[in-house]
Structures are given as structure tokens and as C-alpha cells.
Amino acid sequence: MQAFPTAIPEVKVIQPKVFGDARGFFYESFNARKFAELTGVSTPFVQDNHSRSVRGVLRGLHYQIRQPQGKLVRVVAGEIFDVAVDIRRNSPTFGKWVGETLSSDNQRQIWVPAGFAHGFVVVSEFAEVLYKTTDYWAPEHERSIIWNDPGIGITWPDVGGPVLSAKDQVGSLLRDAEVFE
């Protein structure tokens, strides 16, 4: 397993070592000791989530203002473009974003620490996304930043117009959002 830096140092791309042959492949998708060594994060994961979405579905940009969640995200079927936005007001990268293509073919994962808004769009026919979180889902603390906030300027892949939930259609602009200090 290796970790690669992104333009925001706390966000890491994790590439597992894949052992493949004519039968298929095997890889260790998570190892707490190795993850801590690569990221400096030893917080335990307390919840695993699994979503399935069709092409064009955009989920995000989500975060919890209390009980903030770090997320380790991977794709087990299909392909997504995954985004993390720094929403820590006192950070030198506040309002900046990084994006990474995650797919069942490249087996990459992305570590999105607490203090970041997270979202993704499905670019394949469908995608199944698994992610581990460092705290439990707390709907009363969940917040959403609008996916196309011009102040952030995310360059999303063209999927013919995103399919959004009612909640994601009315997300806040970053300048008006409740963020981390």
C-alpha cells in the first residue's frame, strides 16, 4: 500500500498493492497499522457505508459540523470523480478543492479528513462506493455546500447535467456556510 499526496497535504490518495493473475486479483483494502503509517491518522473507523448510484448522480458536498467525519472512500464497481473541499477557515487551503478519479479498475482510495466537505459524481453507467467514517452519521449536524459554488470552482466531469437530491439542490454557498474554525 502506498499513499500519494494531493494539492492539499492532508488529503491522500491510497493505492493498495494488487496481486493479480489469470484467476482475478486480491488486495488488502484496509490495514489500520499501514494506514496510520501512511497518513499519520490512527483514529478508528466506526461506520461503513455503501451507495449505488447511476451515471450523473452527484452526491455532495457533505460534511457534519459536529461529530465531523473523516472518510476513506473507494469504488468497488464503476467509476466516480471524487472531490474534497477544505472548509477549515484558518487553513491556508481554505476553499480549495482536490479531485481524484476512483474506480473498480484503478482500486485507488481517497482519505478525506474531518474538516472537509466531500462529494462525488458518477461517470460510468453506475457505481458502487464504499466508505469508512471516523464518526457516526448525525443528520442533525449534516450540512451541504452547493456542488457548483463559483467561489470554489470545482471542474466536474461532463455527465450531461448532474442528478441531485432535494437536499443537494439547496446547498449553501461556501461564503454563507457554517464551517470549521
**What overall geometry do the principal axes of the alpha carbons give?**
globular
Order of helices and strands: EEEEHEEEEEEEEEH
| C-alpha Rg (nearest Å) | 16 Å
Beta-sheet strand percentage? 35-45%
What this model shows, in words?
The protein is mostly beta strands. The protein has a single domain, classed as Jelly Rolls, CATH 2.60.120. It contains two helices and 13 strands; from the N terminus they run ββββαβββββββββα. Strand 1 (2-5) and strand 2 form a beta hairpin. The protein is globular and about 50 Å long.
Tags for this entry?
single chain; 181 residues; mainly beta; Jelly Rolls; six-stranded antiparallel sheet; 7% helix; globular
Summed up, what is this model?
Helix content is 7%, strand content 41%.
What's the layout of helices and strands?
Elements: E1 2-5, E2 12-15, E3 18-21, E4 24-27, H1 32-39, E5 47-54, E6 58-64, E7 71-77, E8 79-86, E9 97-103, E10 109-112, E11 116-122, E12 126-133, E13 142-144, H2 166-169
Antiparallel strand pairs: 1-2, 2-10, 3-4, 5-12, 6-11, 6-13, 7-10, 7-12, 8-9, 8-11
